[in-house]
Design goal:
The chain contains 17 helices and 15 strands. The chain has 455 residues and is of the alpha/beta class. The chain has a nine-stranded parallel β-sheet with strand order 7-4-3-2-1-13-12-10-8. The chain has a two-stranded antiparallel sheet with strand order 5-6. The protein is globular.
């Protein structure tokens, strides 16, 4: 499948429309001082809550045959919990989008969580810091399977758990902004919360003693949602379900230097392996366990039985590659085939099906240019040309079973901590008028999609 994608908070806007409840990103972006580069928020974003039909028409014009997008948890269940009311307006909103996609011949891929936890759950018990969130997430997933599963055949429960754990609870750069850095956050512990500890968490006026592990709870939420789908829905709905993970691929700066080789593998273990190894191999990476010691949680036998094998495919979000230990932000190495090496490991094979669920590039300084200039995004065209070439080599030379390729993103949009200062879209958006203008990269993708259809 040849595809483009978006995420709900980055594009929808209209945070209170249709009875949507607030998410942690609504709260985070409205702090004072603002943690966002340009002090912006997703309050309007690309106004896709109101312009989604226009966006689908763009997709169709670009020749995409699939569209990956995320659902806002708090638009489906405003307060988020398993005893809280389901919002019928939110269900109808997404079902209308899905029906329109299918009407024009575009296959929907649904992501259930792209970082916008309902604020009520964070206030109620600490959100991802609390094991309670697993049961609430599984209930939310069940509502979605029941509401959309007759139409949707491709599911991704969790998007990029590393970003949630590390950027949200380690660096504090993403919502909910918890960190040990007291200049950035009044609460949080970067050494423990992304991983594990037994500590006291203060949430507003409520103090709870909890076993804290954001990453662990994300893995369990994913796995138990998959278990539910397989047991209650997959047989009749005939869909696939799996995780999507992100990785800045790392290669040794000196391939003859053992220290470089070890450092590169450790870097991969710490980002990709942290979540991939439990799902595909049944355990955390040895290097991560050695580094974290008792901060890394242990799976019970019952938990690992659910976690291992809880993905029908290997989903990877990839943007660039780093040289280790020397790292240059200006190095762009095309190693799509290397990313799939781990999938093809003969000793511990992962799923043979692979989906490139995100791949994109922000052109330098294009955020300051008018549409007439910004649409000539030659750097992005070059990037997509090189990555799609490497992708085809992974398929045709290395024999990787790649099922889909998603370009990030359809539109310029709200880019999290960077606000609107960074543009990844293949469509230029004038944020004042919301006018959409196709860029040269959209035409490249259109031609590439057309030239690589299955015969």
């Amino acid at each position: 499948m040849h595809d483009i994608l978006e995420a709900s908070y980055q594009t929808e806007g209209s945070p209170a429309a249709g009875n949507r409840g607030p998410s942690i990103w609504d709260t985070f972006t409205h702090q004072d001082p603002s943690p966002i580069a340009d002090r912006s928020s997703g309050d309007t974003a690309t106004d896709s809550f109101n312009r989604w039909k226009e966006d689908i028409a763009l997709l169709k014009s670009y020749g995409a045959n699939a569209y990956r997008f995320s659902i806002s948890w708090s638009r489906i269940i405003p307060n988020g919990g398993r005893t809280d009311q389901v919002n019928s307006e939110g269900v109808k909103f997404y079902r209308d989008i899905i029906e329109e996609l299918l009407r024009v011949g575009i296959t929907p891929f649904l992501t259930l969580y792209h970082w916008d936890l309902p604020q009520t759950l964070h206030d109620r018990y600490g959100g991802w810091l609390n094991r309670e969130v697993v049961d609430d997430f599984v209930h939310y997933a069940k509502v979605c399977f029941e509401s959309f599963g007759d139409l949707v055949k491709h599911w991704i429960p969790i998007n990029e758990p590393w970003c949630v754990s590390t950027l949200g609870y380690g660096y504090g750069a993403f919502a909910p902004g918890r960190s040990s850095d007291r200049k950035r956050s009044l609460a949080g512990n970067s050494k423990t919360e992304p991983f594990m500890c037994v500590c006291f968490i203060v949430i507003q006026t409520l103090t709870l003693k909890r076993s804290v592990s954001v990453g662990h709870n994300l893995l369990l939420s994913h796995a138990f949602a998959v278990k539910l789908y397989r047991e209650q829905f997959q047989g009749k709905q005939k869909g696939s379900i799996g995780i999507t993970l992100d990785c800045v691929w790392c290669i040794p700066y000196d391939e003859n230097d053992g220290a470089c080789i070890e450092a590169a593998q450790t870097a991969i273990d710490t980002r990709l392996g942290w979540f991939a190894d439990p799902i595909y191999k049944g355990h955390y990476p040895a290097s991560l366990a050695a580094s974290l010691g008792d901060r890394l949680p242990k799976f019970t036998d019952a938990e690992i039985a659910v976690v291992k094998g809880s993905s029908d495919f290997f989903g990877i979000n990839t943007y660039t590659t780093s040289l280790v230990p020397f790292v240059s932000l200006h190095v762009q190495l095309i190693v799509a085939d290397a990313i799939f090496d781990d999938v093809q490991d003969p000793e511990e094979p992962m799923s043979t099906k692979a989906n490139v669920t995100e791949n994109g590039f922000p052109c330098k300084d294009k955020d300051t240019h008018a549409a007439a200039e910004a649409v000539n995004d030659a750097d992005r065209v070059e990037y997509y040309r090189d990555y799609t070439k490497a992708l085809l080599e992974a398929v045709n030379v290395d024999g990787v079973d790649v099922r889909s390729y998603f370009a990030w993103s359809l539109l310029d949009n709200f880019e999290w901590a960077e606000g609107y200062t960074v543009r990844f879209g293949v469509t230029h958006v004038n944020y004042e008028t919301q006018e959409r203008t196709p860029k040269a990269s959209s035409r490249f993708l259109e031609e590439w999609f057309e030239g690589h259809k299955l015969k």
